[in-house]
């Protein structure tokens, strides 16, 4: 029963961490895109003034940053859960 209660109690924390991770990843992507391209705005797939290469490069960089931030937050949350509860989360 304690395991179920812990999952319910940690759900809002996980949601907040996910939101924070998405926000952080967005900020990091904007900074990375400025460094890579020198442009303040990343291209959108529907932007007809941008080429395929630029759009796909931006998508690849954004995807990589989001994946790394998500993995780091997930791993940090699991380690914190173990420290708080004494066992690794499911």
TrEMBL record:
Keywords annotated in UniProt: Membrane, Transmembrane, Transmembrane helix
Pfam family, one: DUF4235
InterPro entries: DUF4235
Listed transmembrane segments: 12-32, 52-73
Protein name from the UniProt record: Integral membrane protein
Organism annotation: Actinoplanes missouriensis (strain ATCC 14538 / DSM 43046 / CBS 188.64 / JCM 3121 / NBRC 102363 / NCIMB 12654 / NRRL B-3342 / UNCC 431)
